[in-house]
Inverse folding.
């Protein structure tokens, strides 16, 4: 009897549910007939059925090929489009855009329904049929992949963490005496590294070269030929011998910008055509310091002393510093974030040219102080962590001194070597203070 009673109760409950469904359907039909005309019942019935088959909300992890596209594939197994409708919605358009932008190789992985869905969208005039707000929840990664990525980044941070060089740098040399009677018009009388830089780049050493009377001309192409030979030397397997230096640079510069960016400020040999055995050319003096940068796997740069508005400082940026990139298409300088390791030109107009001449040590340069065709008095600098000084500096200095003999136009040039490091971090370029009417006493 108990079992029979239970069966009767279930039957009565089912009857009530069916009656309620029928009543709602009839109510909707009567309402539709009254307000939508004779065909209103059919319209309302289709809307009711469509709502009953509406697709469940979808979470799309659009950067995950496995987890993300697997969920999308399963969803499209049930529905033609994401909302369960016969025409595309705003969800479909945004989802397709994100999936395609992620660059997933849909031919390689088994997601046939995703491929068919994208093809249907291409064949449909989606721009006119899609409307409404986006209901899909778009997330870059699934929770599982997000945890994996966090673990991977944590491991990378440990791997690329720079351990301060414990050994003492032994390389030393006598600094060159600077000529006292050169009639050079410039306002740049001193190069200084401020203490805050050494907190981000402990033990930083900068080998500098004051290059005087070096015409930026090379009619016979000797400097370019030298650059070509160096690029061929470091290409292919021969570059592998220098990978240790690249690894040092990756760890050493990890504090300069957020990790996760592949745009590390390494030597150009790590980022450009030299790794393929090909050189690139700007002008002879720029080609010269790029050659040494590639050869010795250190960052290198330079400025035209006659174009500098004041002293040169390597310091942490502060509020009010601004930068106008060399490749910018006009416009005004942008203010940089405080705490960047930047080369600063004192006395520059922050509103028109910007006072930051190079950002992030050796990442991007402005037009201010640029070495150009008419340049002949330049200041070159090559930065390196203490780990590389003993191995790199002696040969680098020899190569710098060879500049006058590298090309015919340089026979009257002179190269004066100095070094800035945590001890003598300020170099007074007394040679540059001779024209009192143009030079400023910055001592």
């Amino acid at each position: 009897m108990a079992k029979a009673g239970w069966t009767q109760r279930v039957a009565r409950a089912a009857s009530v549910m069916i009656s309620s469904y029928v009543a709602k359907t009839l109510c909707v039909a009567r309402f539709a007939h009254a307000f939508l005309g004779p065909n209103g019942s059919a319209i309302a019935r289709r809307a009711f059925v469509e709502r009953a088959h509406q697709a469940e909300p979808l979470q799309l992890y659009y950067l995950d090929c496995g987890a993300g596209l697997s969920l999308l594939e399963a969803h499209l197994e049930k529905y033609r489009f994401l909302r369960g409708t016969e025409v595309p919605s705003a969800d479909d358009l945004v989802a397709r855009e994100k999936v395609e932008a992620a660059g997933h190789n849909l031919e390689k992985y088994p997601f046939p329904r995703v491929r068919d869905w994208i093809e249907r969208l291409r064949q449909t005039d989606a721009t006119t049929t899609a409307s409404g707000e986006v209901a899909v929840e778009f997330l870059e990664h699934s929770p599982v992949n997000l945890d994996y990525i966090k673990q991977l980044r944590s491991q990378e941070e440990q791997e690329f963490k720079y351990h301060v060089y414990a050994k003492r740098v032994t390389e030393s040399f006598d600094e060159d005496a600077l000529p006292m009677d050169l009639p050079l018009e410039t306002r740049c009388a001193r190069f200084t590294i401020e203490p805050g830089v050494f907190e981000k780049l402990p033990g930083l050493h900068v080998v500098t070269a004051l290059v005087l009377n070096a015409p930026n001309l090379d009619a016979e192409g000797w400097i370019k030929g030298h650059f070509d030979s160096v690029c061929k030397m470091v290409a292919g397997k021969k570059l592998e011998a220098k990978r240790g230096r690249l690894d040092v640079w990756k760890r050493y510069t990890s504090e300069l910008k957020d990790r996760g960016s592949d745009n590390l400020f390494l030597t150009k040999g790590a980022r450009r055509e030299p790794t393929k055995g090909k050189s690139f050319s700007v002008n002879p003096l720029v080609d010269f310091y790029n050659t040494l940068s590639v050869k010795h796997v250190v960052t290198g740069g330079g400025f035209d002393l006659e174009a500098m508005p004041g002293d040169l400082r390597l310091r942490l940026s502060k509020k009010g510093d601004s930068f106008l990139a060399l490749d910018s298409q006009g416009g005004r300088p942008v203010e940089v974030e405080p705490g960047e390791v930047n080369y600063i030109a004192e006395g520059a107009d922050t509103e028109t040219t910007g006072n930051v001449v190079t950002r992030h040590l050796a990442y991007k340069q402005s037009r201010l102080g640029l070495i150009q065709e008419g340049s002949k008095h330049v200041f070159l600098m090559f930065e390196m962590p203490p780990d590389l000084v003993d191995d790199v500096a002696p040969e680098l200095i020899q190569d710098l001194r060879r500049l006058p003999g590298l090309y015919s136009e340089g026979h009257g040039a002179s190269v004066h070597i100095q070094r800035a490091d945590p001890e003598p971090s300020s170099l007074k370029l007394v040679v540059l203070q001779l024209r009192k009417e143009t030079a400023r006493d910055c001592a």
Observations:
- Residues 267 and 299 are 5 Å apart (CA to CA).
- Confidence is low (pLDDT under 50) at residues 21-53, 258-273, 430-443.
